[in-house]
Design brief:
single chain, alpha/beta, globular, Rossmann fold, 6 helices, 4 strands
Amino acid sequence: MPFVNSDRAILAGGSYGGYMANWIAGQPLGLRFKTLISHDGVFSPYGMLASDMPQALKGEFGGDPWDSKSALEAWDRYNPSLFTKNWKTPMLIIHSDQDFRCPITEGLSAYHVCRMKGIPSRFLNFPDENHFVLKRENSLKWYKTVLGWANKYTGVDGVKLKPPVSERYSKRVT
């Protein structure tokens, strides 16, 4: 696509897309992006045993890791944590404390790997949100952070967002 500037490409994903961002970070493709953004992404399928739906993992990987050699191999083949030796791309990691679908330890693990390896990174946390950022002010913070991070790594001048409606109209004379 001639209109796409691949020299400034970023990868961003949430939920399964966040898992893919974490997995791609360890693959050769991860080096082709200026930055990666992982929102509520899986760091390790084993860590997902602490989620509110561990039974779903069995279907995703063809069994529990203790069921068979092929199931164990599937758990490891697509386990982002096993490819962290290849992580080099700057990363924004977003996670919420009340996300029981993908426990916060998944986001913290990815963030700490980045910090331990000296990879430019940031952890954006929402203590009062779940798998989805739904509160208005939190949503605004999410967009400002994501766009600011993406702009920083793509060389785009900052895009000014309008202040929240509550701030724009709080000074209105009635």
